């Protein structure tokens, strides 16, 4: 009977006549399974994988069946080495390797009589056969010495084969000449030397020593040099405090004398609060075989891994402004701790962003300083539920190299392989530097209290420099005297305060200044450009609603575009979506760049933006703002992944490296920024004060009480106002389309770079009163405070009601309905920096006003009240009866039922407009 393919006989009998055919067919299967008929292919696979006890071919007299079975056994053994050999690798300085029974040839029916028998090492890619003894030597050397490799989980066969050839072709070992070995010892001497010096001179001070992981210094040096040789011009590093001082001095070239002054407390920051020495960043330039490489170590708070997305955003900004192969030109390097890499969710968020359009940087080189202990006392079995601390990286199929930190040559070999992989495939790669921590969490800690056995071993264990010096002495490359001289020379250089890294190019202080000089020292009151003429706005509006011929937009989107064209013609008042998009168009029109990300930003969560339109027949996406005219600015808009912490960290990093792009992150609902609070607290609000880093990042946070419950009402305005000091950021609550138009333009056009927090509306996006005329967008600018129109007689006003946001329209409609012409409604559109001059000027318009009430929708202990009421005190030559109108204090941001919400709104409006002022009253 023929097989289904008709190409090969589907025989179940074995004889002398067809033995040669079956053997040839099996070897063909081993080379390329797809060329064999499906039925034979399945039989051979079952046979090779041991899924059947029955032979594929009945046994005959002779050796062919035994040879086939033996090759299948060898194949399974090889696969075990490649897949699980890392489990038996001798890559842990603190414990010997544990041989796995899965790597025992006897488990596969192989014995000593097979050792000299030739077998295929790689049946799919080579016709060469080797004795089993040689195959096992290659596999053990490659997968079970000082490097353990995880790569067989990668689905891309091209990547797997490249890694296999690279590893097995070199037996996972580098080849270093005598001079390279001496240089390696010199770097280890430096890594150990700075720690010894600080330990001796600054007894008991925290430095978060690198001791036990000294191989990190030659690793970074090799990484930078190899990247430079491949065309890299910038390397951006992010790391927490472990080993940071060592990296600053020995890699980035920070002068030791500057570090010593920081230890001694005599280095006072130039303005701002400053930060502890092991959080500070630095930048410098070093030479490489391919030319100069600019190194940047990002500033980092104690929140460990939060720097990860910030570095990625900074790298993406640098890549976006470079021509050519920017992913080679700028390379991100992230240095992690083992417990933090496994334990902190922002690591997963950052990894998840790695290959998305909005956040890719062409691959990150991750280095895990694996001390095998978390923080102070945590054991690995309490720190994670995975075998390795790096297992989270398996989600993006990154190769992981587990390397013994006590073998610096193995470390350098893996570093080279990691750099080559990143450059070839533009994907993330992980180096797990398995080492230990010689001291406790800090140098005053006593680790043996909780880890007696580990630290009994560590205290007897020689440092990596001593081990390597002995190794080189045994090879006759470096004598004991030479090694001692290296140490003495390094210590003398430190004592003199000399730079001890590779020679630097230019100023060793190297802080980034050039792109930011024009933005420093600028006040928030700096003027900005007025809006474009009406005719120009109409032309921009026409282009931002134009779609390609034959493009079929959704009927609702087409209706919106039609309405926007009428708005541009002056036939309809402008709504929020029109004004916001027109703000972007007016900036792009004149060559400015914009980056807008967040969940649903293309359409807009509340169906108002429609900056990205989808063809209803083909699904093709089109962004009209990217096609306004030739020579326009770049408009990057991406619907982000479902992340806040990672994404906001990325956008902060982008904005801190690119002052000339309007960078915007929009939360789906304003309170979703809760998930990124650490970015707001430790970077956005305080980055300038701590580190002198400016950022023009804009946050759009939908805010407004619509009866949608506690989690979809408040953007937690009070939190931002609590963080405000020293004009560190701006907090605005615009209430009209013209206001958002001018506010967005002001953020980029004014030479002032501070974060902007915008509480944007939901119901106001389509509110009948929240509209603007086109001439309000032309000319003029953002108004920090909006008073009453001239139709009100200022001399009749006795009560001033101040507010921010949507509640203004509730107050306005009630005042009109009740004819309360003795009340003026004042909108504070910029809550911080508070527009005091505008406020005092407004008060002068109402000489008879005696009552001043702040009205808000948020509970009394939330919203703006407690952060703004002091602004109403101390008015020159005036005294007011000041009161509050709003919900009572509450642990929840809003009530959870719509009827409650309606009643609450009625009560707060009544208290603001009708009831007597009572500063101590609260609504029950």
From TrEMBL:
Keyword Heme: no
Listed InterPro entries: 2-oxogl_dehyd_N (IPR032106), 2oxoglutarate_DH_E1 (IPR011603), DH_E1 (IPR001017), KGD_C_sf (IPR042179), ODO-1/KGD_C (IPR031717), THDP-binding (IPR029061), Transketolase-like_Pyr-bd (IPR005475)
UniProt cross-references to CDD domains, sorted A to Z: TPP_E1_OGDC_like (cd02016)
A GO CC term attached to the entry: cytosol
Protein's UniProt keywords contain Oxidoreductase: yes
Domain Transketolase-like pyrimidine-binding stretches: 574-767
Chain positions covered by the region annotation Disordered: 85-106
EC number(s) per entry: 1.2.4.2
Molecular function as annotated in GO: oxoglutarate dehydrogenase (succinyl-transferring) activity; thiamine pyrophosphate binding
Keywords: Glycolysis, Oxidoreductase, Thiamine pyrophosphate
Reactions catalysed: N(6)-[(R)-lipoyl]-L-lysyl-[protein] + 2-oxoglutarate + H(+) = N(6)-[(R)-S(8)-succinyldihydrolipoyl]-L-lysyl-[protein] + CO2
Superkingdom of source: Bacteria
Subunit structure: Homodimer. Part of the 2-oxoglutarate dehydrogenase (OGDH) complex composed of E1 (2-oxoglutarate dehydrogenase), E2 (dihydrolipoamide succinyltransferase) and E3 (dihydrolipoamide dehydrogenase); the complex contains multiple copies of the three enzymatic components (E1, E2 and E3).
Protein family (similarity comment): Belongs to the alpha-ketoglutarate dehydrogenase family.
Function (record text): E1 component of the 2-oxoglutarate dehydrogenase (OGDH) complex which catalyzes the decarboxylation of 2-oxoglutarate, the first step in the conversion of 2-oxoglutarate to succinyl-CoA and CO(2).
NCBIfam families listed in its UniProt record: 2oxo_dh_E1 (TIGR00239), PRK09404.1 (NF006914), PRK12270.1 (NF008907)
Name assigned to this protein: 2-oxoglutarate dehydrogenase E1 component
Organism annotation: Methylococcus geothermalis
